[in-house]
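Task: sequence design from structure.
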């Protein structure tokens, strides 16, 4: 078993950006599929929302 001695996998900033981007992607995918888009189109919309949200919060959170 590896001993990491207090090192975290992600910084708090990276974890927060990943959380916000994931929440936006899930919400976008659910809303897209519920509005009548195919699941594949919903997945593509989710990917775009994840990328845009991650870029935005990377810029906003200093």
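Answer:
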């Amino acid at each position: 078993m590896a001993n990491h001695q207090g090192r975290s996998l992600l910084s708090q900033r990276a974890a927060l950006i990943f959380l916000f981007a994931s929440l936006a992607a899930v919400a976008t995918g659910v809303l897209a599929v519920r509005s009548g888009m195919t699941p594949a189109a919903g997945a593509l919309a989710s990917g775009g929302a994840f990328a845009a949200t991650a870029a935005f919060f990377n810029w906003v959170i200093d």
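The chain has a mean pLDDT of 93.
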